[in-house]
Design a protein that fits this description.
By secondary structure, the chain is α/β, with parallel strands linked by helices. It folds into two domains: about 220 residues, Spore Coat Polysaccharide Biosynthesis Protein SpsA, Chain A; about 80 residues, no CATH class. β2, α2 and β3 form a beta-alpha-beta unit. The longest helix has 21 residues. It is globular, with a radius of gyration of 20 Å.
Length: about 300
């Protein structure tokens, strides 16, 4: 089995060593590794640092360069170059646990050995018609603390995980390459970022994830990172977010808590405001959702104008 590790990076050459060493540590397990790096227009020493890794000839490393187009474009391009059976997207400030690839191999083998064992309950829920597109693992921070909650279900979707099963933290996804290559991060109006969840929601419409309560990845957030600058991400990339929240109405929203439904509605109103889009009620599916839009539209716009008054 072969795993493709995809890493987009921008001026973070100094952070790659932890990830590189974690890949070296995982060589003891019986599988092939390829590490594909997309340099998104870095002006630091990223290229020379990666070249040193390549010169060591310990693992298969491929370095690519593109003019600054953003993380999502970088990953889209790397997916095209990947040749592994499985794909893992790993940011430059993340790295793997020492037993990550052993865990991945064991869980993948279990799934493959059991994929033809369809139970009566599976048939009733049409599970046999839905493909598994990824394995979902826990992600820990640098203090060895879970960045969220443990999974409540073994098989689910990313949408249900976050909107129905009350997950609130990051996870590490290991995609099946033959399915992952059928999807891309969709960017709107030359924006450089969109939430990964937009693609996950699209994949959810025909597939499921298998959840495993084991950590395989450690995350160390940086001050200039996407997560720490979420308000700027909203301002600079509103159209992708608007499409994401609009597309949520295509999901099965039965079972979503009132709190989560309000979360969806208020963000839909926010990005409708930022994009100056029209016909917000028309773009909303479901009578209940339309009613909430009507009730919250005016106060939502007032709050949005206050919080984002400096937005062009």
């Amino acid at each position: 089995m072969k795993i493709s590790i995809l890493t987009p990076t921008y001026n973070r050459g100094n952070l790659l060593n932890k990830l590189y060493n974690s890949l070296l540590e995982n060589r003891k397990y019986d599988l092939e590794i390829e590490w594909l790096i997309m340099d998104d227009g870095s002006e630091d020493e990223t290229k020379s640092i990666v070249q040193k890794y390549i010169d060591e000839s310990i693992i298969d490393i491929k370095y690519y360069f593109q003019k600054n187009q953003g993380k999502m474009s970088a990953i889209n391009n790397l997916v095209e170059y990947s040749n592994g059976d499985l794909i893992i997207e790993c940011d430059s400030d993340d790295f793997f646990t020492n037993d990550a690839f052993e865990i991945i191999t064991e869980e993948y083998t279990k799934i493959e050995n059991n994929k033809n064992h369809i139970t009566k309950n599976d048939k009733e829920n049409n599970i046999e018609k839905r493909k598994i597109y990824a394995m979902c693992f826990l992600k820990y921070n640098q203090d060895n603390v879970n960045m969220g909650k443990e999974f409540r279900k073994k098989r689910t979707t990313m949408f249900d995980l976050y909107y129905k099963e009350e997950e609130n933290g990051e996870k590490a996804l290991v995609f099946y390459n033959n399915i992952r290559k059928q999807y891309k991060y969709k960017l709107e109006k030359n924006e450089k970022f969109v939430t990964e969840a937009r693609m996950y929601n699209e994949m959810d419409l025909s597939g499921d994830i298998i959840c495993i309560n084991k950590p395989i990845m450690i995350c160390e957030y940086q001050e200039e990172g996407y997560t720490n600058n979420i308000i700027n991400q909203f301002k600079n990339n509103p159209y992708g977010y608007y499409e994401y929240f609009k597309e949520i109405f295509n999901q099965n929203m039965k079972g979503i808590t009132f709190k989560k439904r309000i979360y969806i509605i208020k963000h839909f109103i926010l990005f409708n405001y930022l994009t100056k889009s029209k016909n917000i009620v028309k773009n909303t599916k479901g009578i209940y959702n339309k009613l909430l839009i009507i009730l919250l539209y005016i106060p939502g716009n007032i709050i949005s104008s206050i919080r984002f008054k400096n937005t062009n």
